[in-house]
Task: inverse folding
């Protein structure tokens, strides 16, 4: 799997390259600014771009904008955006085209290498990955929502993991219960929230995110 | 009032008269303030209050003599006294003229009924330029009287404005007083800004010292311990490494919160409208935002406005029991105007909570103001205005 990295801090860029290569991914290009990211993506056509939100030259949300621009030029390009902080506003913009193949994670998540590489692979495969902090904030925001209040604590836990973009298998592993039990939980959740059930992982997470983000 | 003052001054020699002076002067101020308010309401002439602030209204009592001195040295005190003297004649005349005209006119209209007793008793038989000697001439007075009544009624409202202007000429702050008040305001807001800034820096220092710095030290020690047991007890070393990683994650989270409190990244990235939109997305209430800003204010103003809205929303969550909030931001004639309305229980009091005071002070540093309307039962509307200039919008932030 070929990856393009855009990160302006040398230490982090170097760390990302080493981490991804250690897990057998190929880093096709590693750049340190927005315009270079677009060029690298057009030239290398990677399976996924891993992009820092804040990049030169403007040191604002340059990375996010460059990534969205690159995605318009290379339709369907999977992008995983990394940031020192998460904003629902940016999560929404990434999800706006409804196509999936996007990820939005705190930089802290690279500390757990295995999970991070898993997230990169999932986005490359067209999946959606949202940071637990985005989900937690979406859930507090939907606090007074009656439908959410009807979920059991376990169902709420499952819902959070679904919203982060995990598959049933991954959720089962994390909560140490069987995949069948997870499948049962998800179907109850979807019924309680009045959502169209879906076997497709990506359509499922997009539906849940749309529900929480209303 | 003047009489009381005269009495007070007269008895000053006896000692107790002195004690009457400050109270009387303050009463004069109340009277003058009422005129200022009435001039705004009735004459459409706004008059600012010119008095220099009294020393330490909420702190300890500065003592009788200091207060006395402040009163006597405030130029506005003497202008008030001048106004009271002049107003008792000019104001009297200005208010009397319409009433006199109306009464004189009514007398003219009544002339056919009353002329003969007056004339036969040898009274004055002139009404303006008409010599009343018969019923016919008396009837001639009727239209003239009606004209006087009309003139009196017409002149009343038209004299209000000149009266207002007359009051303003004496009651409004002089240029010097205006400047003195301005200096006073700037001194206060500057010391507020400096205090707040210093307190913030101290807080940041403490947060770094107790938070990230301490965690990094702990992390180093954990890693050191892991290194020591690595060969003998790999399982324990692994556990220590996991602990170190968790500590680094916590340090990162703390730093992130710290940065957000200093200057939220989304504000730097996108400007006020999107930063408030991000706040709205994080708010547990249903929040509607209308933002019409053709550009970005200077960074300090932007930051003040952002934190003001952020604090208001936090206030609403804490106190108002509201389900919905409406935020309206627009820029008009050099003013950034932000309305925050909630459908909560109302009854908010700016003087009770330090929250609104804090926002007011924050805005005050930029000559901004905050107005609160919060009747019991709601809705609560907070309006903030900040004078500022907008830079041209960044085309890239579309």
Result:
């Amino acid at each position: 799997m070929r990856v393009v990295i855009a990160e302006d801090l040398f230490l982090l860029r170097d760390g990302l390259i080493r981490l991804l290569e250690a897990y057998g991914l190929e880093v096709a290009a590693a750049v340190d600014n927005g315009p270079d990211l677009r060029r690298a993506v057009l030239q290398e056509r990677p399976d996924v771009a891993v992009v820092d939100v804040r990049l030169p030259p403007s040191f604002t949300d340059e990375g996010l904008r460059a990534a969205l621009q690159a995605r318009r030029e290379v339709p369907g390009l999977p992008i995983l955006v990394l940031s020192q902080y998460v904003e629902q506003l940016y999560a929404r913009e990434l999800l706006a085209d409804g196509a999936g193949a996007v990820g939005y994670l705190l930089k802290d998540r690279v500390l757990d290498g295995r999970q991070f590489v898993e997230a990169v692979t999932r986005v490359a495969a067209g999946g959606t990955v949202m940071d637990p902090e985005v989900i937690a904030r979406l859930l507090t925001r939907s606090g007074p929502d009656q439908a959410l209040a009807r979920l059991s604590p376990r169902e709420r836990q499952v819902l959070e993991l679904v919203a982060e973009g995990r598959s049933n298998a991954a959720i089962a592993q994390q909560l140490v219960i069987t995949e069948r039990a997870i499948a049962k939980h998800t179907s109850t959740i979807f019924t309680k929230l009045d959502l169209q059930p879906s076997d497709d992982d990506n359509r499922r997470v997009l539906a849940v995110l749309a529900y929480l983000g209303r | 009032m003047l009489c009381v003052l005269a009495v007070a001054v007269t008895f000053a020699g006896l000692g107790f008269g002195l004690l009457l002076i400050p109270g009387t002067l303050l009463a004069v101020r109340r009277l003058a303030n009422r005129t200022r308010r009435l001039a705004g309401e009735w004459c459409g002439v706004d008059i600012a209050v010119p008095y220099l602030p009294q020393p330490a209204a909420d702190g300890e009592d500065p003592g009788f003599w200091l207060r006395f001195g402040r009163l006597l040295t405030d130029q506005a005190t003497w202008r008030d006294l001048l106004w009271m003297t002049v107003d008792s004649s000019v104001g009297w005349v200005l208010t009397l003229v319409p009433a006199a005209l109306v009464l004189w006119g009514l007398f003219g209209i009544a002339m056919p009924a009353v002329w003969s007793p007056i004339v036969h008793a040898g009274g004055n038989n002139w009404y303006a330029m008409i010599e009343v000697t018969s019923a016919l001439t008396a009837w001639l007075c009727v239209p003239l009287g009606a004209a006087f009544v009309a003139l009196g009624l017409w002149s009343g409202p038209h004299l209000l404005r000149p009266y207002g202007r007359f009051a303003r000429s004496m009651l409004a702050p002089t240029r010097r007083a205006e400047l003195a008040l301005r200096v006073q305001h700037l001194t206060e807001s500057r010391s507020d800004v400096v205090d707040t800034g210093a307190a913030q820096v101290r807080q940041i220092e403490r947060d770094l010292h107790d938070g990230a710095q301490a965690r990094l030290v702990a992390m180093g020690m954990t890693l050191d311990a892991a290194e020591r047991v690595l060969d003998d007890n790999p399982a324990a070393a692994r556990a220590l490494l996991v602990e170190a990683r968790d500590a680094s994650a916590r340090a990162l989270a703390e730093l992130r919160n710290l940065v957000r409190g200093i200057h939220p990244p989304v504000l730097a990235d996108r400007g006020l409208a999107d930063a408030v939109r991000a706040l709205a997305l994080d708010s547990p209430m249903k929040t509607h935002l209308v933002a019409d800003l053709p550009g970005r204010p200077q960074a300090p103003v932007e930051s003040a406005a952002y934190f003001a809205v952020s604090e208001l929303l936090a206030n609403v969550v804490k106190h108002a029991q509201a389900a919905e909030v409406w935020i309206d931001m627009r820029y008009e004639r050099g003013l950034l105007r932000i309305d925050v309305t909630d459908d909560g229980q109302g009854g908010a009091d700016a003087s009770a909570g330090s929250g609104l005071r804090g926002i007011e002070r924050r805005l005050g540093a930029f000559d901004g103001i905050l107005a609160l309307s919060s009747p019991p039962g709601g809705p609560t509307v907070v309006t903030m205005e900040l004078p500022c200039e907008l830079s041209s919008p960044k085309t890239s932030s579309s």
Q: What stands out?
A: Chain B has twelve helices and nine strands. Residues 190-262 of chain B form one domain.
